[in-house]
C-alpha cells in the first residue's frame, strides 16, 4: 500500500467521484489515478467505489471506512512534515491562509505588512473563499487556518476562536427615506431591491438566516457581488440598497450608512482551526498580530480539548 494510492482515492472522493478533476488537482493522468485506486482495492480485498462502466458512481460502506482512515493518515503525514519544518527552519517555509474577500481587503493589510517585516523568508499563500468553503479547506488540511466572520458547517473537527464583534450595514443614497429613519426593520428593507454579497444567496449565510428568522422570505436580491466598489456604484445608480460588512464602509462619504447588526445573530471575526492540527510558530505569530487576545495557550486549549462548544475569548 502506498500513500500515493490513498491520496488518489481521497482526492477522487473530494471531487465528487470525478476522476478527471482529481487527476487535474493531483497533476497526474486520469488512467494513472484509476489504476492506482484499482491496485489499492485489490490489495485491500474490498471495493472502495461502485462503478458503472468506467465511471465511479458511489462509495461502498467499506470504502467510507477506508476513506475516513485515509484522510487521517494523510493529515498525519502533513503533521510529520510540519514537525520537520518547525524544528529545521524556524523562520522559513510557507503559511497557508484562507479568508473572505472583505477580511482580505479591510482587515489583513496591516497584519500582512507586520508579519512580512518579521518573517521576510516566509512564503504567504492567501486564498479567498466563502464561509462554507473555509470550513472545507480547514477540515481537509488545505490551509493552516482560515479567517471568517460567520458560523458555517457542522464538523466537530473545525474549532473556532471568536474575536471582536462584526457589524453589518445598510448602504443607501442619502435621499432614501431609510437614511433618516430612527428604527430600521426588515419590512422596511425588503420593500426595496437588495444588493449584497455572492454567498448571501446560500442557505447557510447570515443574511439568509436572518431573513428566514424574521419570516421575510420574499426579499428581492437584485444584484450580488463580492466587489464592494461595484456594489456601491450600483447603489449610487439607484438599483437598490446594499447590505454589506460595515468595515467596508469606513471611507464612504457620498452614501448613507446605517448599522443593522441588530437584525442579525451576533457575528465576530473568527479563526477556524482543525482539531489536533499542529500549528507552526509562524501561525501563532500571525494570529497574535491579528488579534493579541488570541494567545498560543488559548489556541492550544481549543485545538486539543474535547469538542463541547466553540471557545470564545
From TrEMBL:
Gene3D superfamilies the record matches: Periplasmic binding protein-like II (3.40.190.10), Winged helix-like DNA-binding domain superfamily/Winged helix DNA-binding domain (1.10.10.10)
Domain HTH lysR-type: 1-59
Superkingdom to which the source organism belongs: Bacteria
GO biological process: cysteine biosynthetic process
Keyword terms: DNA-binding, Transcription, Transcription regulation
UniProt key word DNA-binding: yes
GO molecular function annotations of the record: DNA-binding transcription factor activity; transcription cis-regulatory region binding
Pfam families: HTH_1, LysR_substrate
Record family assignment: Belongs to the LysR transcriptional regulatory family.
PANTHER family: HTH-TYPE TRANSCRIPTIONAL REGULATOR, HTH-TYPE TRANSCRIPTIONAL REGULATOR CYSB-RELATED
Protein's UniProt name: LysR family transcriptional regulator, cys regulon transcriptional activator
Origin organism lineage: Bacteria, Pseudomonadati, Pseudomonadota, Betaproteobacteria, Neisseriales
Amino acid at each position: 500500500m502506498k500513500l500515493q494510492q490513498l491520496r488518489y482515492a481521497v482526492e477522487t472522493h473530494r471531487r465528487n467521484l470525478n476522476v478527471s478533476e482529481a487527476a487535474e488537482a493531483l497533476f497526474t493522468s486520469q488512467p494513472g489515478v484509476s489504476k492506482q485506486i484499482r491496485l489499492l482495492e485489490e490489495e485491500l480485498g474490498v471495493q472502495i467505489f461502485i462503478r458503472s462502466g468506467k465511471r465511479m458512481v458511489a462509495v461502498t460502506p467499506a470504502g467510507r471506512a477506508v476513506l475516513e482512515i485515509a484522510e487521517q493518515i494523510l493529515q498525519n503525514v502533513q503533521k510529520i512534515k510540519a514537525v520537520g519544518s518547525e524544528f529545521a527552519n524556524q523562520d522559513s517555509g510557507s503559511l497557508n491562509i484562507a479568508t473572505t474577500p472583505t477580511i482580505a481587503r479591510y482587515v489583513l493589510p496591516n497584519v500582512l505588512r507586520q508579519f512580512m517585516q518579521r518573517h521576510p523568508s516566509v512564503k504567504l499563500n492567501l486564498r479567498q473563499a466563502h464561509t462554507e468553503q473555509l470550513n472545507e479547506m480547514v477540515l481537509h488540511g488545505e490551509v493552516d487556518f482560515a479567517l471568517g466572520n460567520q458560523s458555517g458547517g457542522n464538523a466537530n473537527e473545525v474549532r473556532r476562536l471568536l474575536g471582536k464583534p462584526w457589524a453589518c450595514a445598510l448602504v443607501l443614497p442619502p435621499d432614501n427615506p431609510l437614511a433618516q429613519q430612527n428604527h430600521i426593520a426588515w419590512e422596511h428593507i425588503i420593500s426595496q431591491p437588495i444588493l449584497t454579497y455572492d454567498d448571501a444567496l446560500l442557505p447557510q449565510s447570515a443574511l439568509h438566516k436572518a431573513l428566514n428568522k424574521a419570516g421575510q422570505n420574499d426579499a428581492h436580491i437584485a444584484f450580488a457581488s463580492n466587489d464592494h466598489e461595484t456594489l456601491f456604484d450600483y447603489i449610487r445608480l439607484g438599483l437598490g440598497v446594499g447590505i454589506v460588512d460595515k468595515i467596508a464602509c469606513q471611507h464612504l462619504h457620498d452614501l448613507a450608512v446605517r448599522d443593522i447588526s441588530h437584525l442579525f445573530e451576533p457575528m465576530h471575526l473568527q479563526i477556524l482551526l482543525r482539531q489536533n492540527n499542529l500549528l507552526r510558530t509562524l501561525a501563532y505569530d500571525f494570529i497574535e498580530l491579528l488579534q493579541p487576545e488570541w494567545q498560543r495557550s488559548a489556541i492550544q486549549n481549543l485545538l486539543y480539548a474535547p469538542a463541547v462548544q466553540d471557545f470564545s475569548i
